[in-house]
Amino acid sequence: MTRADFDHLWTNARVATFDPRVSAPCGLLEAHAIAVRGENIAAVLPTDSPEVRTFGGPVTDCGGMLVTPGLIDCHTHLVWGGSRAADWEARLAGVPYTEIARRGGGILSTVRATRATSEDDLLKAAVPRLRALVAEGVTCVEIKSGYGLTLEDELKVLRVARRLNHSDPFLHVEVSPTLLAAHAVPPEFAGRADDYVSLICDEMIPATARGLLAEAVDVFCEQIAFTPEQCERIFTAARKHHLVVKGHVEQLSNSGGAALVARCGGWSADHLEHLDSAGVEAMAKAGTVAVLLPGAFYFLREKQKPPVDALRAAGVPVAVASDLNPGTSPFASLRLAMNMACVLYGLTPEEALAGATREAAKALGRADRLGTLAPGKRADFLLWDVSHPAEIVCQLGINPLARRVFRGNKADD
Ligand code: DI6
Ligand code: FE
Fold it and tell me: Rounded CA gap, 336 and 212, in Å?
């Protein structure tokens, strides 16, 4: 390795690589340096290696800090209009969700507000949410539509997601946009869900694909939303247009949605509180990532937990995400989601951190370039002022992120 092989060295670091080839917990390499060339990692080398000692170019001393891959939030709905705080107040006072929906609250109230908000104003509202995620170390984020539910309004939300894709100098973050038109049946299609599914398949998916506005198509497969048959129609249309699929499945009941996602080669099956053993088996066989969203479980005071032991035993990759949305997980913190995954679901802190890095990269089809610190991977990494990796997950209300590097640049957001 010569000088020409890299152009910046980040030395004197404790590198939590999350590379499965490194057998230490978190793939930790003590006293190492990260050699960056352009936007990528050229090498991870011991600090006392000749290549590091003789390097004549720019060096940053990490002062013995812990370095991890950039965090990846692989499930958010962070573009919305309006507020659901009054809904929450009513729910706390004992008003059932169905009654709140009857009064015009719930998800359709966010749909009304999002439709009434301009693209620019939606962007303005989304920036502080994304900024909060970024401030805690997120370097890649998935953003779903799903509060527009007309062709025009879904595309409007996806355009906002595209504008958030590292275009603003203060938001160095990669966005993976997802079409979630099958989030709810819009009021104008009440009682005609199949007709709305036809609109999704015949107009929304083709327009999204034509405009390169999303990478994936998501569905809410649930008794209160769309049936597995309707979801399968949507997945078939998505795949015809070369879009990947994923699903909100088995959140409130089991309807076999996870097995459907697995059968369709989906990137991830998300929520999974009511996942059964057939679903676990189907996901294991297909390599579908399980995305756990403990924020919604907590906020809705759910009781049924996802089958974490069975997922582990079957070798299903497990990711953790914020599910940031106004109704069921209004938390712009992936560190909080990791903390909840440990306290509420029994993940180890190492599993939670892997779930927000390496496994989340798999959930977004980016395992070849993101999620671990190894040669050839993107130079997205974080310097943490902590003595132990678990501290990143344990302490909230204080942000131990000291420095953030996005694509090799020292982007101190
Ligand atoms: N499951 C959820 O928990 C959210 N969406 C979904 O499919 C709910 C979003 C909302 O209530 O606004
Ligand atoms: Fe969600």
Answer: 32
Torsion over CA of 167, 168, 171 and 177, rounded to 10 degrees?
Answer: -40
Q: What is the model's pTM?
A: 0.97
Give the contacts of 135 (CB within 8 A, at least 6 positions apart). Answer: 399, 401, 413
Neighbours of ion ligand 2 (CB under 5 A): 323
d(CA 176, CA 165): 8
d(CA 54, CA 175): 38
Which ligand 1 atom sits closest to the C-alpha of 327? 11
Number of C-alpha atoms within 13 angstroms, CB side, residue 203?
13
In 36-70, which positions are buried (b, 16+ CB within 10 angstroms) versus exposed (e)? bbeebbbbbbebeeebbeebeeeebebeebbbbbb
pLDDT of 239: 98
- Kindly state if the Cβ of 110 falls inside 6 Å of ligand 1: yes
- Cα–Cα distance for residue pair 412/156, rounded to 1 Å: 30
Nearest to 336 by CA among 125, 108, 133: 133
Sole residue written with tokens 């399968």:
232
What b/e sequence results for 21-34 when a residue is b if at least 16 CB atoms lie within 10 Å of its CB, and e otherwise?
ebeeebbbbeebbb
* pLDDT tens digits along 54-77: 999 999 999 999 999 999 999 999
Residue 251, Ramachandran bin (φ over 0: left; ψ between -120 and 50: alpha; else beta): alpha
Indicate whether residue 328 lines ligand 1 (CB < 6 A). yes
Q: What is the pLDDT of residues 295-309, one digit of tens each?
A: 999 999 999 999 999
